[in-house]
Amino acid sequence: MTVMKIDYCETAEFKKDFKRLAKRFKTLTEDIQTAKRNAIELYHLLKIDNQSVVQIKDIKSNEVAFYKLKKFACKSLKGKGVRSGIRIIYAYRESLSRVEFIEMYYKGDKENENRERIKAYLRAETKI
């Protein structure tokens, strides 16, 4: 049996988001590894939907699907569990088994994802 694996990468904007949030939430590096295993890989590789990942359906592409990781446990936010309010927006390219992180934000700072950033990512991807 071959073990499927997801290749992870990050956009420059995501790296900035992460760096800014990591100053406030010191466990973010560890938390994101947990989220990869317990949400993203469960959903895409094992097809187990634990209600952590939601597809953003109104931005369409044949190659890429966009998702919002809503249940993100952050140890720095004690007592919140998966209701930390931290969100990750990512693109999943099933043909390559690749996840590219596009945006990370805290709901206390802003309510929703930056749709323009997702569309800009999509425009850049179609030029490759």
Summarize, please.
Helix content is 34%, strand content 23%. It contains 3 helices and 5 strands. The protein has helices at 12-24, 28-44, 115-127; strands at residues 7-10, 53-55, 65-69, 86-93, 98-106.
Structural class: alpha+beta
- Overall, the morphology is globular
- What is the H-and-E element order? EHHEEEEH
Q: Kindly estimate the percentage of residues that lie in beta strands according to DSSP.
A: 15-25%
Helix content: 25-40%
Q: What distance lies between the first and last C-alpha atoms, to the nearest angstrom?
A: 33 Å
Uncertain runs: none
**Radius of gyration computed on alpha carbons:** 14 Å
Number of strands: 5
What about the largest sheet? 5 strands, mixed
How large is the count of helical segments? 3
Mean pLDDT rating: 90
Side by side, the strands of the main sheet go 1-5-4-3-2
Give a description of the structure:
The chain has 128 residues and is α+β, with helices and mostly antiparallel strands. Helix content is 34%, strand content 23%. The protein has a 5-stranded mixed beta sheet with strand order 1-5-4-3-2.
